[in-house]
Give the backbone structure.
Amino acid sequence: MTETAQDYTFLLEKDEASAVDFLAVQTGLPKGRIKDAMNKGAVWLTQKNKTLRLRRATKSLFKGNKLQLFYDAHLLAKQAEAPALILDNKRYSVWYKPHGLLSQGSQWGDHCSILRWVEVNLKREAFLVHRLDADAAGLILIAHDGDTTAKLSGMFQSRRMNKTYQAWVEGHWDLPEKGKLLDAELDGKTAITRVYGLQQSVHNGKPVSLLKVEIETGRKHQIRRHLAAVGHPIIGDRLYGNAGEPLKLLAWQLEFDCPVTKQHQKIVSTQTGLPDLSLNFIS
């Protein structure tokens, strides 16, 4: 949200023939901009105690409805790089999410989210199973029906979904490294991260290291916070380290038993996720 953003809330006192016409009169915004905001998920309709995004400009409104427009011209003008389809199992799919693409939208819009991108381009329902930071790149699972969503979510919760990341961090991490356990609590909750050193190098004249990272829990920004706490922030981490370039964190591998076929799946990203470094990830 930017300084010029504005949110509008209207409780309808009478029926209205068209949502876009009503909003144009009430806000003074051109109809074209309102239609664009609706298409990008910035308009919400509450009726019968249910609130959903409203995308159809000609939708009729009724007395007692609540209509909300969250208008941020800067955000609505943003464009994100498209994700790449890695695996399509029909009931779920695996994607490579590039830097800057959100996992899901907000009340201000969802056009820069992978969830909306999948809905539009696969023309199927899309349900988020897990999240990946907007700053990070890598593999993300999207389910396409409620039953599969529940099964995949349960696998994450019961730690039957193995997630492996790779990250370039500041400083030299000792090599060879059998693995270091980072288990400092985050937000009062257990957080377990295992880190393995893969490579040492120099980037922009400073020592850096390539790490393989496995997590047993999924706390907010867990990897970023744990690595920063031990003096090795991820390169490009604007929250816990130093900004200036894209975050060098890649969700590199997913390993699990498919809930549909029961076969073991091991999916590895072929993308490096590190376009600004001359060095590539190694496995």
In short: Helices lie at 19-27, 31-39, 73-76, 114-122, 146-157, 222-229. The first helix runs from residue 19 to 27.
